[in-house]
Structure formats: structure tokens, C-alpha cells
Amino acid sequence: MLGSAELCFNVDHGYLEGLVRGCKAGLLTQQDYLNLVQCETLEDLKVHLQTTDYGNFLANQTNPLTVSKIDTEMRRKLCGEFEYFRNHSLEPLSTFFTYMTCGYMIDNVILLVSGALQKKSVRDLLGRCHPLGRFSEMEAVNIADTPSDLFHAVLVETPLAPFFQDCMSENTLDELNIEVLRNKLYKSYLEAFYNFCKDHGDVTAEIMCPILEFEADRRAFIITLNSFGTELSKDAREALYPTCGQLYPEGLRLLAQAEDFEQMKRVVDHYGVYKPLFEAVGDGSGGKSLEDVFYEHEVKMNVLAFTRQFHCGVFYAYTKLREQEMRNIVWIAECISQRHRTKINSYIPIP
Amino acid sequence: MGSLFRSEPMCLAQLFLQSGTAYECLSALGEKGLVQFRDLNQNVSSFQRKFVGEVKRCEELERILAYLVQEIHRADIPLPEGETSPPAPPLKQVLEMQEQLQKLEVELREVTRNKEKLRKNLLELIEYTHMLRVTKTFVRRNVEFEPTYEEFPALDSDSLLDYSSMQRLGAKLGFVSGLIHQGKVEAFERMLWRVCKGYTIMTYAELDESLEDPETGEVIKWHVFLISFWGEQIGHKVKKICDCYHCHIYPYPSTAEERREIQEGLSTRIQDLYTVLHKTEDYLRQVLCKAAESVYSRAVQVKKMKAIYHMLNMCSLDVTNKCLIAEVWCPEADLQGLRRALEDGSRESGATITSFMNTIPTTETPPTLIRTNKFTEGFQNIVDAYGVGSYREVNPALFSIITFPFLFAVMFGDFGHGFVMFLFALLLVMNENHPRLSQSQEILGMFFNGRYILLLMGLFSVYTGLIYNDCFSKSVNLFGSGWNVSAMYSASHAPAERGKMALWNDSVVRRSRVLQLDPSVPGVFQGPYPLGIDPIWNLATNRLTFLNSFKMKMSVILGIIHMTFGVVLGIFNHLHFRKKFNIYLVSVPELLFLLCMFGYLVFMVIYKWLVYSAETSRAAPSILIEFINMFLFPTTATSGLYAGQPSSSSSLVLESLWAQEAALGVHLLSTCSGCCWPSPRCPCPCSSWGSRSSCCGCTTGAAASGSAGGYTLVRKDSEEEVSLMGSQDIEEGSTPLEDGCREVTCEEFNFGEILMTQVIHSIEYCLGCISNTASYLRLWALSLAHAQLSDVLWAMLMRVGLRVDKTYGVLLLLPVMALFAVLTIFILLVMEGLSAFLHAIRLHWVEFQNKFYVGAGTKFVPFSFRRLSWKFSDDRA
After folding, report:
1. Residue B10, SS3?
2. Which of residues 201-260 of B touch A (CB under 8 A)?
3. How far apart (Å, rounded) are the C-alpha atoms in residues B123 and B139?
4. Torsion sign across C-alpha atoms B478, B482, B487, B488
5. Interior/surface letters A200-220, b for 16+ CB within 10 angstroms, e for the rest
6. Contact flag B187-A137 (C-beta cutoff 8 Å)
7. Which of B52, B184, B194 sits opposite A156 (nearest CB)?
């Protein structure tokens, strides 16, 4: 059956979709990576990046060039593109964009709260915040002492407010609680985003739901992995798992009982999608880390999103791919600047 | 003229540049713009080339210059943009220049930093004074509107009245005051309310004047606010929130005296700062003025230097590392100039060994260079927009100079409109040296670049307008009509003759609405009008029928001539490329096919025009029927155009069909001949097949053996070609370097592929002939549309205006005339002109050029400093 997306998508979002596909074509190619890896200094890197879509984005930087400068400029470029998309978007795409920024906003809030806990200066912290998750009340985050304060005083007007429902119980903001807070926020955020995409239906749902399911499961895995050897109880751990993934409900319950990596692997064996990923993880120094494997899988899913037309998922996929590319460039740049060339090739290739 | 017919012969030259003189030589070459460099380091990435360091230095200089230009613009100092372009700086001066610029930048940065600091300070003080002024009214207002704050009497009104009363209450009343961006006020207030749970009171007012933001430099509206609160804790929170919203906070004076003192102090400090700031700005201006004098020439120099290093990056090093080797394409006519430029460059650098060049033979297709002047440029651009001509191919632009405006004019045939267009183009041509015109952008720039095309289009439209006898849709009776109405009256003829003819008498004239003139009546038609169409047709009701028939036939005739000409031009191509077999096997069958079918149609049209007169016109057969019958081979005898026609026409069909088949079959043959044509005159195809494979083998062998670098490869290849050529020369005894065998490329010779291409090509040609002939009917259709549109415009506007009686008519005619002129220009001249232009382009690109033009070349792009842009605006972008 012909969905409505084919008929009306282009009326409102056709321009932006075309634009984002053009931007995607500007991602670095394999040849570019091969050239970048050969660079001797950051200056070389800059010269080569000038021949790509990045253009002369570093032209106004005075010497000496550092990795953080490159990173900031790349982020600024991505942010500029994103803002352009967002400013020209109509409903429901603009809500979709808001959902996309929420993830970054959560990270920023957590960063600021934990920074305030360690008595770091706000200005310093602001520099480290992701520009996509910037919002005007952000700087006031550190006046709050408890999550409910945080909610009532600062975040009540932001898009993050609905995600706070479950997080009011904790009384103090210590280090563990902040992590719990982050994961709870992320859980409700992912679930809300997932429901939004599902309600939207059409191709958007077909594309975005698997991506978000994977995202949810990845978080579940990582929470499990990080909670080994901490005082987090198993029930508390289970409460943190996002429930929109493929692991829900059986897998999550099993995962909550897992006590080490081997047990986790045994849980994963029941899931065809994740089994090969866990098998690809090398033990010790030789192979890839679990994180890299997840990144690779994510890249694959995001690239696949471009094979379908008339859906919002391309914007999400483009942003994620661009972020991965930035991570790659930063990795390569770090390797170059630290003269640590043996590991320079372990970036995540974007096909 | 010769150079426009074909692109210029090119040769590949090697430049041996001594490393000491390379820079100067390239500088000399860049000034002259003679040669196109080939990239010999294609597989070397951009940051691994030899002169990356120098390019980076140029970029650094450009960055400094861009900074200077930006500062100069900000200070509103005019930048002199001279016409002169100083040569690239000698290497010795580069370091000096770099030092100077860097010193200038450091100085400038420091001065501007100081200036900014002072300015920021000043702005803050100004903000403070504004705040004090406005908050004073807040306090007073609070006193005045005391009743409104009844609920919290202890909180605000009392306390504001008397500071000490507050202390009595045991709590500390605090004030925070400052400025905030206009847009943030509401969110700020809400946040205050939420965080402090209402234990604060905020008053704010908009500031009348916009102030500059000391951090970003924007000029925006501000709000002044005053927050009063109780207690230390809330005070901290309030301050944090203020930080969050980027408020500018200033201490709030607690008493009136204090306020006055601060205000006085502020005003004196502002005065001081103003004077200091002025001094700094003056100094900055001086520095910038001095910099502005030389910044233009420096920017030009740096750009030239950068261009030179980019070119040097394309050269490869020779084995001894002592000289650079460049490969360039150079027109053969400019070889002398190239030598001289190299000598000049070497002399300038004072080197002992001069740089030199030699030409090398090559198998590669050289780029296409067609020198144009301001007149031919526009036409060449039209052709290039379709595709740059292959090397040494017949260039259609030469013929387009006449055919293009002519075909346009056939569609745009109006004397008046053509003349207006001609005048407009003439205006552009006369003022072509005007700087504003030559630098104009967008639409006017388009017209300006095509001014000579427009001029010719206007002229030809005047001519076709005269032929169509159309001037703003009206006919002009210059020579007196050839038709005589009075001769139709029965009174003017002898009684004996009256019976035979349908003549008019009074009753006929009175009764009938339409009267018909009969040219066979003696005296009615006195011979054709000397130029174009008789103006009497303007009155006739069957005017359109007559014109349609005429224009339709005319467009077919023009189309056939145009296409035949295209096929004939193909013969020139085959002759030049030494493909004689293509003439017999491609061009001749094509010509035969075209002429036997459509040429015969044209013949019939003209024959019918000449042979049948007014008397015999009733017996004239229809050409359409004749033409169709020609294909049906009618068995029954019909009356033809002339005696013996049926047999001759069917033989023609046979012939054309034969030509068609022959073309098909013969294309096959021609492909065969590529491999096995046994002719003593043509040793190249058979030998070329053999030699080609060996040649390929050699090059791949050379590549496989892994001998270093691209350059040796190229040379080896060319050397082999020399030996190959030599052997062929002995066989052929022709002049070297100039023959068609060099066109042979190292492609795989694929018989099946060529066969398919030729079959498709010949089928396409046969079908194309029919569709292309039909396509030329657009000439008729557009000229009809144009004539009818101008007729409608006349009928709807001018006729209405002219019908009104004398007294009001004069008043009415003025706006009617204005409207008529405007609509004529926009609809008839611009819109119709554009559509006729597009159709003329199409007729040239598709119908004409596909008969002979390949257009698969690359343009010759010489390394020339003139192609660089000297505009500063590019720097800032």
C-alpha cells in the first residue's frame, strides 16, 4: 500500500531531505582516510581537510594547531548545519529535531551538575558542553542541590521536563546518583523518542525504530558492564534499562542477573543480532573493544537509513555519521600529535 | 578566420627548469599566459608535494592580508584597487615582505586589543550611568505606588524608604541591579520566581537607547532591572541566575549621596576614557592608512606567488634533483613566445644555465584552443555550452555567426521589434568600455556578454521583418501594392471578356461581406511586390492561410539546407582526420538519403512555385499527396507535377532506401575496414591494430616493471610512439606529427562494440532526418506565434485607443501608448525573444551539430595571472 509519506513528505521536508543527502555525500571517503593516515603533522591534516567538504574551516586559526581546536571547529560546522536544518523544518520534523537534541542536553546537564559537584568553574564546563545540546537555562543548572530542585527551578520549561517524572526520588546529588539520574533520564528519553517515531508511522518508524532499539540495548549492555563491582543493586540496575529495545522484557531480566562478562555473553547468545557483535570482541589487546563493535554496527544502520526515502531518519543518521567521522578525525589527529602511530588505523570506517 | 574554423594545433612541450630559475620562469610564463601545465604528480596527495611549505607560507600571508583588509574596512578607510598588477615578488623580497606583514599584524593586533579594552570599559561605564539614572526612578516609583505593595509592607516599600528600618527587622535587604538583553527578560523573571519562590521583587524598565554589547559588539536594546531580596542564600542564587542570563551587574548605591558621588565619578572617568580612546583610534587609523597603500599590490603579489607554487607542485624532479621538469601544452604558434619567456625568466634570476624546452610527440589528445575576439566570443560560448570541440574538429561557431541570428530572425520576424533590439544592442556595443557595464552582474551582464549576438539578431530581424512585411504587426506599403482592386469591376473590362470571369458589379459589392480578388483576371495582379510580402495581404481574410503555407515551406527548405550543410561539414572532418573511407561509407550515403527524400521535397516545392501560375493553379497537385504517394508506389496513373514523375520519384525512393540500407551495411564495412581494409593508401588501420596491441603491451610492461614515477612512464610511452611513427612515416612518406594516425588511442579494439555503435548511429540518423525536418517547423510555429501575439496586442490596445473620438482620444492615447510600449518590450521583445533564442539554440545544438560535431574535447586553460581574481571581496568570503 502506498503510504502517505510518499505523497506529502516532499511538500514540507523535501528540500531538507535533499540538502541532507547532499551533506552526506560530503562525508570523507576511504581514500580521504588513507590520505589522512599518512599525514605527518596536524598541519598536513589541515591541508588535506581543505580539499574535502570541510573547506577552509581552520583558516582563521592561528598557529599552533591543536586537536581540540580542530574538534571545536568541526563541531561548530556540524552545529551550523544542524541549526540550518532545524530553522527550516516544519512539524513533525521540528519535533524530531527537538528529540534529537534532547540526548545532548541530558549529557550537558549531567556534565554541569557533576562539574558543579567537583567545584569546577562554569565557564570551563560550558566549553566542554556539546553545542547541539545547548539551551539558555543550562548555565543555571548548578544552583540546584537536588533533582527535584533541578526540575522545578531550571528544567521545567525545557524539552527535558517530561523525562524527569521518574527521577524525583533521590535526595542528594552525589556521584553515583548523578549517574543513576543520567541513565534514568536517558531511559525515559529513549522511550519517548521511540514512541514518537512509532506514532509517526510510515518509513520513519521503519527506519528509526531499529536504530533506537539498538541504542536502547546498547545502553542496557553498557549499564550492565559498568555496574559490575559497584554497589548498585540488581533491582536498581534493572530499573535503569530502557524498555524499548529488542532485549525487553526477557533479555533485560536476564541481564539484570548477570554478574560478569561471561554471563552477559550467555544472555546475548539468545539474540541473533547481538551474538555476532559480541563474538567480534577480541579479548585483551588484540581485537576491538565492545564500544568499537557497537559503533561499527551503528554506522552500518545509519548508512542503511539512506537507502530509503521520505523519512526523518536521514537527519538522525547524518548527524550520527558526521559525529562518527569527527571522532575518527580526532582519533587520527590525536595519534598524529602524540606520535602514536601504531593504533592510527583503528578508526571506524564509514562505508 | 582559419583559427575559428578549427582549433589551433597544439604540441606537448617539456620545460627543463633549473631549480634556481624555475620561479622566475613561471612568473614570466604566468604574465604571458601561454601554456597549460599538466599535473605530473597526480598520485601524490596535496600535502606531500614539494612546495607545500611555500604554499603554506603564502596562505599565512593571505591570512594576514585578509586580517588587514578586514580592519581597514572596519575603519572605513578607502582601499585603493589599482588597475596595475605588479609582478610576482622576487624570492629575495618575499622574506622581507613576510617580516613586514607579520610585524604589522602584531602591532595592529595589539593596538586593536587595547582599543577594544578601552571601548569595553567605556561601554560598561556608560551602561552603569544609564542604570543609575533609570533605577533612581524605580525607587521613587515604589514610594509613589506604595498601595500596590500592601501585601508585603515590610518587604519593599518601607525598606526602600529607609535602609535602617530593615536592619531593625533583623534581616538583610539586598539589591542586585544591572542590565539584561531585551529578549531574555521574561525567562529571567520566571526563573527568578521559580528559584526564589517569590522572595524577590524585580522591577525593570526598558532603556530608551540601544547600546552595544561589550562582548559581541552588537547593538541591541537593553532592560535595566533592580532586584531586591531578603537573605544571603537567596542572594547567592540571584547572582548565579544573573550569571546564567549574562546580565551585566553593577553595584547598587544604597543612599542618594552615594549615588550622586558615583555618578559624578563616572562622568569624569567617561570623559577621560573618551580622550584616550580617541587618541588610540587616531593612531590606529594612521597605521591602517599606511597599510592600505600597499595592501592591494601585496595581495596581488601573494596571489601570483601562490599560483606559481601551485604550478611548480605539478612539476616532477629529474634524476639529479637539479632541475624541475614540467610538461605543458602549448599552441604551436606560441612556441617562440614560450622560448622567449623562458629566456627572460632565466636572465632575470641571473642563472648561468638557462632553462630550455623541447617538444615531444604524444599520443594523447591535446586540449582545444580557439582564439576568440569580443565579437566571436559570444558565438563560441553558445557552442561551448553544448560541448567543447574535439581537438582540430570543425568548429560550428564560425557558421553560427550567421546562421544563429538568421534562424532567430526567422522566428522573430518583425521590422519594428528587430530595430528596437538592434538599437539596444548598439547602445551596449557603443558603451562597451564603460566600467559599470563590463562589470555588471546577473541579467544585465548576460545581455552585455551577448551584445554582438543581440546586434546581429536585431539586424537579421529587421531583414526578415521586411520580408514578412511586419512592423509592430502592421504592414508597410513602401513600393505600392501589386494588386489592383479596380480591375475587378466589370466596368473596366471589354464586354467580350466579361462572360468568362467572375467580375464584380455594384450589387455584388453591396451584398457580399467578403470579396475575392482573382489574379487570373488581367490587370488585377500586376506582378510581385519588390521586397517581401505584398502589404495588401494585411487586409485579406485568408492572410493566415497564405502566410502559413509560405512559412511552412520556407522553414522546411531552410532546415534541409542547414542539415545538408552540417553533413557536408562532416566531410571536412573526415578529410582532416584522414578517414577517407568514412566519406564514402558514411557521409555520401547520409547525403544521398537526405537529399533523395527531403531534397526532393524541396525540389518539388520550388518547382511548383516556378511552374504553376495563377491561371494553371487549379490544376496544381498537392505536394503532400505527391510526397506520400512517392512512398506508396502507386500503380494507377495520377497527374503528377511533371511528365514522367511517378517513375522518377519512385526510383528516387528506391535510391534513398538503398542509400539507407547502404548506409547501414556500409557502416558495417567501415568498421571492418578498421581492421582489414586492404588498401595501399591506408596502412594505418591494419598496422595500427597490430602496433596498438604491442604498444599497449609495452606500456603495461613498463608499468609492471615498477620503474619509478609517472614521468618516466610518459616519456617511455612517447619514445615508443616516436619509433612507431617513424616506421609509419617510411611506409607512408607523409609529414610527421601532423597526421591522423596520431589520433589512434591505446584503446582496446572491440569489433562488436564498434559494430553496435555504427548500427545504432545509422538507424538514429535515418530516424533523425525525419524528426529533425519536422523539428525545423518550429521556425514557422514561432514566427506565427510572434506575429499573432503582436497582432493581438495591437488590436487590444492601440485600436481601442485610436477609436475614441478626437477630444478624449488625445488624453487616452498617452497611457495607451505607454502601456503598449511596456508590453511590447516585456512580452514581445524579452519573452518572445528569449523563446526564439532558445529554439534557435536548440536547432543549432541538436539538428545542426549532431550531423558532424562530436564536442568531446577539453578546453585549453592556460596558466595565466589574468585569470586570478583581484577582488578583495573574495578574501573576506
Report:
1. strand
2. 237, 240-241, 243-245
3. 24
4. negative
5. bebbbbbbbbbbbbbbbbbbb
6. yes
7. B194
φ/ψ (deg, to 5) at A275: -60, -50
B63/A140 Cβ within 8 A: no
Per cent of chain A over pLDDT 70 is 93
Give which of B407, B455, B412 is closest to B565, Cα–Cα.
Answer: B407
Q: A130: which 3 cell numbers?
A: 556539546
* Strand partners for B317: B324
pLDDT for residue B220 is more than 90: no
First to last CA, chain B: 42
Name the residue among B56, B59, B244 with its Cβ closest to that of A140: B244
Q: What is the CA radius of gyration of chain B?
A: 43
Q: What is the pLDDT of residues B112-152, one digit of tens each?
A: 888 888 888 888 888 888 888 877 777 655 544 444 333 44
Interchain contact, B45 vs A140, CB within 8 Å: no
Residue B63, chain A, CB below 8 Å: the answer is yes
As a whole number, mean pLDDT of residues B843-860 equals 91
Tell me what pLDDT residue B636 has. 57
Nearest-angstrom CA–CA distance, A336 and B439: 47
Percent residues over pLDDT 70 in chain B: 80
At position B577, the amino acid (one-letter code) is: F
pLDDT at B739: 38
Residues in Cβ contact with B760 at an 8 Å cutoff, skipping those fewer than 6 apart: none
- Residue B46, C-alpha cell as written in the block: 596535496
CB atoms near residue A345 (< 10 Å): 13
Tens digits of residue pLDDT in A123-158: 788 888 888 888 877 777 777 777 777 777 777 778
> Torsions phi, psi of B669, nearest 5?
-60, -45
- The per-residue DSSP string of B76-92 comes to TPPPP--S--PPPPPHH
Mutate which: A30, A57, A63, A139, vs B, most B CBs within 10 A: A139
**pLDDT band per the 50, 70, 90 thresholds, residue B95:** confident
Q: By three-state DSSP, how is residue B224 classified?
A: strand
For residue B822, the tally of other CB atoms under 10 A from its CB is: 10
B812 touching A (Cβ < 8 Å): no
